[in-house]
Write a structure and sequence with these properties.
By secondary structure, this protein is of the alpha+beta class. It folds into two domains: about 110 residues, Gcn5-related N-acetyltransferase (GNAT) (Aminopeptidase, 3-Layer(aba) Sandwich); about 140 residues, Gcn5-related N-acetyltransferase (GNAT) (Aminopeptidase). It is built from eleven helices and 14 strands. Strand 3 and strand 4 form a beta hairpin. Helix 2 crosses helix 9 and helix 8 packs antiparallel against helix 9. The mean pLDDT is about 95.
């Protein structure tokens, strides 16, 4: 399926993966939003639509009542793409610091605003695999408790066990009443799309089993040449150390050749922010919103 040329748009489909991947390979983004998997998985609940523009792509978000754009996928920091998005909708979200650095802001007459809740957390892969030293003492202790009380095993996710992972996700959501919470409901839809299209999206994943049952799952893929990104990490409640175990084992399995791992944003959720900070990020990927003058 061909991606239309601006001003025409089309919903993101699996058939667009190769073309989007080619643009992203040239762009080498820092922000976690910009993998085909994330755009496709969140496309339905966020109303993402694609259009070709010059040598890149535009991503429109929302419906007729509330339209904005994501960062243009323009490898050369196209001012024309920014101007077009602002003229069309007046607002561009999730603009990564790497893209922003390539723009002539004075010429565009815009003042980007930092959005702390959208910042990505980036960690050292070797540090999270080894968990050495005092700053990881608490994480190591949680893993030791898992080892002490449970006979657990890690396995790479394969197409044959995706149905079991979907059942786990359903149970995880039922326990947390996802349908009663918009953010969890949206995340559930995105996770379902990732798992249901695991092979087509070329994802890597992992599971932890306890007594023959899946107790944790994770999904990820390369973000750029030196950074892996974790899209999904879920674990049963009430079992200490599961999150630490699935994180460490998956990095050993899938990301040893990468220097960094991007574990996405905290969305301003206090508990999630505390948890992400506790893993000692080596840096944050800043993101911005750009609005048209007078908006």
């Amino acid at each position: 399926m061909i991606i239309p040329t601006f001003p025409e748009f089309a919903p993101i489909e699996l058939e667009h993966k190769q073309e989007v991947d080619e643009v992203l390979a040239r762009l080498q983004p820092l922000a976690s939003e910009y993998t085909f998997t994330n755009l496709f998985a969140w496309g339905e609940v966020s109303g993402y639509n694609l259009a070709r523009f010059e040598d890149g792509l535009l991503i429109r978000k929302g419906g007729q009542d509330s339209i904005s754009f994501l960062q243009p996928l323009a490898p050369d920091g196209s001012g024309a793409a920014i101007a077009t998005c602002l003229a069309s909708a007046g607002r561009i979200e999730r603009v990564g610091e790497d893209f922003l650095a390539r723009l002539d802001l004075e010429k565009l007459l815009v003042s980007p605003q930092e959005v702390r809740d959208d910042f990505d957390y980036v960690y050292s892969v070797p540090e999270l695999m080894e968990l050495r030293g005092d700053k990881y003492h608490d994480k190591k202790n949680l893993l030791n408790q898992l080892d002490k009380y449970y006979a657990w095993s890690y396995h790479p996710m394969t197409p044959e066990i995706v149905e079991r992972c979907l059942r786990f996700q359903h149970e995880w959501c039922e326990e947390r009443d996802c349908e009663e919470h918009e953010s969890l409901s949206r995340e559930n839809c995105a996770t379902y799309r990732m798992l249901s299209n695991f092979t087509a999206l070329n994802l890597r994943g992992g599971i932890i089993e306890i007594d023959g049952r899946i107790a944790a799952i994770t999904l990820g893929e390369p973000l750029n040449s030196d950074t892996y990104v974790i899209h999904v990490e879920k674990a049963m409640s009430g079992i200490t150390g599961l999150y630490q175990a699935i994180n460490r084992e998956f990095l050993h399995d899938a990301a040893q050749s990468f220097s960094y791992v991007n574990r996405e944003q905290d969305l301003g959720v206090p508990g999630l922010r505390k948890a992400k900070l506790s893993y000692n990020p080596v840096r944050m990927v800043k993101k911005y919103t750009i609005v048209a003058s007078g908006s």
